[in-house]
Amino acid sequence: MPTLKEAFSEQELARFHEQGYLVREDLISPEWLVEIRRDLEDLHERMAEGLPEGVHVSWEHEVDPSIRRRIKQLMHAELVSPALDRLVRAPHLLDLVEQLLGPEISLFHCKLLMKAAREGTVTPWHQDYSYWTTGDNRPLMLNCMLQIDDSTPENGCLQMVPGSHRAGLMEHRQEGQVFSRFLPGYFQPRADAVPVPLRAGSAVFFGPLVVHGSDANRSAQDRRAVTIAYNVTGNATGGTRERLRGAEGTKSGGA
Hints:
Blueprint: H1 10-19, E1 21-24, H2 30-39, H3 43-49, E2 56-59, E3 71-75, H4 82-88, H5 91-101, E4 105-113, E5 123-126, H6 129-132, E6 142-147, E7 158-160, E8 173-174, E9 181-182, E10 194-195, E11 203-206, E12 212-214, E13 225-232, E14 242-245
């Protein structure tokens, strides 16, 4: 388990269960952040030329045809960035995940959300479990969303609806191809929503039932983020990519 300095406090854990999300400032070092940014240089252009095996991309022009070839979402980001692959299994991160999820931890997926300057489009209000629910799983997953760039209201920082997870899975509409499931109103302003601006290197942890979304990026600054989704091992057939911690494994390596 994490040291007293690194661990979530009892007050933080209570806030997570009450609000459905929890911020951890400076999750990684500035040096690690530099490595991630280096791995992602020219990523739009490189992925437009051809995708590595196992990588899947949704493009902004699938939402708005007037936008040039810019990545909206890249699934399995650990395959394009060694620094992100290390982060997925980093012991200090898994220690925090264990406090929120329990000792049986597997990777569900790792994805980049690129939200390019002036071209990143809206992510409508939704609950992740609306995409993930199956006949044999429960809403036990946990997201860790790390900011690669500073996020602000101007460049489309994440917005949360505190406590919304307690209502359970809500009815979503389905339309389009990218972020196709959304709550009524798409991304109309909500009085109960709270912006969660974060400086680069900081992260927000949240569960699969909390309502969230983000506005378009109308600024001159990218708002790149990576979301690592963890699952309880055994929660659904085929519901994990890799076992990271638990009875049949040791605490993962990494740096």
